[in-house]
Write a structure and sequence with these properties.
With about 800 residues, this protein is α+β, with helices and mostly antiparallel strands. The chain folds into five domains: about 190 residues, HUPs (Rossmann fold, 3-Layer(aba) Sandwich), CATH 3.40.50.620; about 130 residues, no CATH class; about 190 residues, Alpha-Beta Complex (Isoleucyl-tRNA Synthetase, domain 2), CATH 3.90.740.10; about 140 residues, Isoleucyl-tRNA Synthetase, Domain 1 (Orthogonal Bundle), CATH 1.10.730; about 60 residues, Roll (Ubiquitin-like (UB roll)), CATH 3.10.20. It contains 25 helices and 34 strands. Strands 10, 11, 12, 13, 14, 15 and 18 form a seven-stranded mixed sheet that branches. It has a four-stranded parallel sheet with strand order 2-1-26-27, with helices on one face. A four-stranded antiparallel sheet has the order 6-5-9-19. A hairpin with a 4-residue loop joins strand 13 and strand 14. Helix 6 packs antiparallel against helix 7, helix 18 crosses helix 21 and helix 22 runs antiparallel to helix 23. The radius of gyration is 35 Å and the shape is globular.
Length: about 800
């Protein structure tokens, strides 16, 4: 018997799979199954989180192939983005060189894990053949009115003279130099995702195979609300100051008005009152800090008129009001809003109750917290005494009739700003001509390629601005000198359609083949981290709907079923370099082999749960695989084409029990993969099966030989290298991934023994096993002879016996 050497076994089969293109996918060949994990960002090499994500997907891909599905299981690399520019600065290396070096490392490591990818469909988003189509989509969206440019605030570091991404702002400061970040208005490009807000919300209700948590997060992000926009006015000049509220029934309780520090009127105040400017700027900066900050505000020395009662109320600017929601101005009703109440108490502002709970009166000066529930209206003019839910409707109508308010449906969702003032991304295909204005680059001139003769310092704006041969061009209309746009696209654009690119052959005149993509799409199973629950998934859904409206695809949603896997934690914390608890997958592979790593990842926890990294678990899986190897190599004979012995119904004794165990194992593993993705319990079942086979005495029997064949087949999706090697040693010459998955027979799962419940006068007195073949008279005789039964009868007369065969006997005593 040869010892198990995972390195030799795994390298052998990885070379075979690559040479034979074992996992290549071909359209139009039966029922399809599109299995996809979120592609990796190419910063460094693979980590344990990647291994978990891709191992889960690989099990499903193998299982579906063995069920007879035509499986598409592709991989690629999310290759544009800020980390490459940071590496260019820190490591003095070009982003392109750093990125492609990382891709080579990733590709080698993924292949070393034996994942069943169709490598011919690989996508690399920084390849010009890919980002060409980012630019093409931009032009098509531009034609459809889904693209526009406007001034919007951006995070600005004055020391570095550059725009910062949100993730580069740390506690309100530049991540590089710690300069306080300010907001600077820049003209930037947007995709009009809000045009699809209602459809994105409605379609989500039908997505039954998505986690509830993800749907809730998207629901909150889109943030649909129904309310009233009320026109307050500034006291000294009558200028309108609209506010949006979902609680118009509380308008009589407004005691002050609050502006966001980024509101246009706040900017006017800052210009006219230099003494307030620094404080307003400070509050803007505080809004960049993640997490809860202390509520702060300043009185503007201005007043507003509440249109419903003509009351004059003070105008404040505060850091707890965001420009992104509503109009950027709120009517503050501290008696009925938690945040307003906290602010009012801090600054000694009036609190007026206008809704009282049933059977209780409230007074503003005595309130210890705001009351946000329904109730009876008070101090609300002609609406006093009315139920608040009814008043909400009638007051909305009354304000509309009096032209002081309008009913509106609003969304928290904002249009997608795709402009990035950075180098390593897709150039936005726009030209600026002093004569002809803003023009799209003609399609025939795509792609607009990134120049490589560039110096990246992280300071002084976009690096592309300094490359004359890139910036300077000619107007496509008049032919005069013009300039290119130097912003690049948000990298979420790259990941918003890559799944369509996988699903078709590549071409020079189209982003993907609609017919082939129509065959494969939508993705049947998508797997990735919950951190992508909002932006990536939402943008992908938007892209799909936009492409549908362009006639490129017919589907409404890109992903049918979604799984968000848990984190990998070590020593009670998420793995990270800063915490020093990172485990290098390559070290594990070198020591134990890829199958052991895969097996541990799957066995340690169900996919949705966090996985606690434990070395002992690795060693346990390694021992299990070694036991499988010894069992099969020592006792297995020739591979059989049909499992005849496994399904034969004429079994007795030990063979019948083994047969039942085989069918039970097939049933359990099948259901754990198919219905629940509980790979941990599936592997536990296989371990139990191996223990049973080791103890089985008649290892030369044909049924035992078939049992080893079943074991090898069931193990394959989890640990494919060792399973394929063992199958070959048993004489199987084909790839296991296309062997039909074994079925189980329910009738063979039934036991000969059942538990019989014994009652006397309806009370439980005994229970014991009987065989299903015993006749009624024999069963009743056994019951009456039982010691416990005799004890309760004690010579009394039996009136009758109620017998439900195989379940219950009730002895009725006189």
């Amino acid at each position: 018997m040869i010892d198990y050497d995972p390195k030799i076994v795994e390298e052998k089969w990885q070379k075979h799979w690559e040479k034979e293109k074992t996992f290549a996918s071909h359209p139009y060949q039966g029922e399809k199954y599109y299995m996809l994990e979120m592609f990796p960002y190419t910063s460094g090499g693979i980590h344990i989180g990647h291994v978990r994500n891709y191992t889960i997907g690989d099990v499903v891909a193998h299982y579906k192939r063995m069920q007879g599905f035509n499986v598409l299981h592709p991989i690629g690399f999310d290759a544009f983005g800020l980390p490459a520019e940071n590496a260019a600065i820190e490591k003095k290396i070009h982003p392109k060189d750093w990125t492609y070096s990382n891709i080579d490392t990733f590709r080698r490591q993924l292949k070393r894990l034996g994942f069943s990818y169709d490598w011919d469909r690989e996508v690399i988003t920084c390849d010009k053949d890919y980002y060409h189509w980012n630019q093409w989509f931009f032009l098509k969206f531009y034609e459809k009115g889904l693209v526009y440019r406007k001034k919007t605030p951006a995070n600005w570091c004055s020391t570095c003279s550059t725009v910062l991404a949100n993730e580069q702002v740390e506690q309100g400061k530049c991540y590089r130099c710690a300069t306080p970040v300010t907001q600077k208005s820049l003209k930037q490009w947007f995709f009009k995702i809000t045009q699809y807000a209602d459809e994105l919300l409605k379609e989500m209700k039908n997505m039954d195979n998505w986690p509830v948590a993800v749907k809730k997060m998207q629901d909150n992000w889109i943030g649909k609300s129904e309310g009233v926009q009320i026109d307050f006015s500034i006291f000294h000049n009558g200028e309108k100051l609209p506010v949006y509220t979902t609680r118009p029934d509380t308008v009589f309780g407004a005691t002050y008005l609050v502006l966001s520090p980024s509101h246009p009127f706040s900017e006017k105040i800052a210009k006219k009152n230099p003494s307030l400017k620094s404080e307003i700027e400070r509050m803007r900066q505080e809004q960049l800090i993640k997490g809860e900050v202390e509520k702060r505000g300043i009185f503007t020395n201005l007043w507003a008129i509440n249109p419903v009662n003509k009351e004059k109320i003070p105008i404040w600017i505060a850091n707890y009001v965001l420009m992104e929601y509503g109009t950027g101005a709120i009517m503050a009703v501290p008696a009925h809003d938690e945040r307003d109440f906290e602010f009012a108490k801090k600054y000694n502002l009036p609190v007026r109750v206008v809704i009282c709970p049933p059977d209780k009166n409230l007074h503003g000066e005595n309130l210890e917290q705001s009351y946000v529930g329904e109730g009876k209206m008070v101090k609300s003019g002609k609406f006093s005494g009315m139920a608040s839910d009814k008043a909400r409707k009638e007051m909305s109508e009354w304000m509309k009739e009096n032209k002081i308010g309008t009913f509106q449906v609003r969304y928290k969702l904002r249009d997608w700003c795709i402009s990035r003032q950075r180098y390593w991304g897709t150039p936005i295909p726009i030209i600026y001509c002093s004569k002809c204005g803003t023009l799209p680059v003609p399609e025939k001139d795509l792609p607009v390629e990134l120049p490589f003769n560039i110096k990246i310092t992280g300071k002084g704006g976009s690096p592309l601005e300094k490359v004359k041969e890139f910036v300077q061009c000619h107007c496509p209309v008049c032919g005069e000198k013009a300039k290119r746009e130097t912003d690049t696209m948000d990298t979420f654009v790259d990941s918003s359609w890559y799944f369509f690119s996988y699903a078709s052959l590549k071409g020079d005149s189209f982003p993907f083949d609609s017919r082939e993509a129509g065959y494969w799409m939508p993705v049947d199973q998508y797997i990735g981290g919950i951190e992508h629950a909002i932006l990536h998934l939402l943008y992908s859904r938007f892209f799909t709907k936009a492409l549908r409206d362009m006639g490129l695809v017919k589907i409404k949603e890109p992903f049918t079923r979604l799984l968000t896997q848990g984190m990998v934690v070590k020593d009670g914390a998420k793995m990270s370099k800063s915490k020093g608890n990172v485990v290098d997958p390559q070290d594990i592979i070198d020591r134990y082999g890829a199958d052991t790593l895969r097996g541990f990842i799957l066995f340690a926890a169900p996919p949705e749960a966090d996985l606690e990294w434990k070395k002992e678990g690795l060693e346990g899986i390694n021992r299990f695989l070694t036991r499988v190897w010894r069992l099969v190599t020592e006792y297995a004979s020739n591979w059989k084409k049909k499992l005849e012995e496994t399904y034969s119904e004429n079994r007795e004794g030990k063979e019948k029990e083994l047969q039942k165990m085989v069918n039970k194992t097939i049933e359990k593993v099948t259901q754990d993969i198919e219905e629940r993705f509980h790979f941990n319990t599936a592997l536990a079942c296989l371990m139990e099966f191996v223990n049973y086979l080791y103890l089985y005495p008649e290892k030369e029997s044909l049924l035992f030989q078939e049992s080893l064949q079943v074991l090898t087949t069931l193990l394959y999706p989890f640990c494919p290298h060792i399973a394929q090697e063992l199958a070959e040693r048993m004489g199987y010459k084909e790839d296991l991934c296309y062997l039909r998955w074994p079925e189980y027979r329910k009738k063979l799962l039934r036991s000969d023994k059942v538990t019989l419940v014994v009652q006397i006068n309806g009370k439980l007195r005994d229970r014991f096993f009987i065989t299903t073949r015993e006749n009624k008279e024999n069963v009743e005789r056994k019951v009456l002879n039982r010691e416990r039964v005799q004890k309760h009868i004690q010579g009394r007369c039996i009136k009758k016996i109620v017998h439900i065969p195989g379940k219950l006997i009730n002895i009725v005593l006189d």
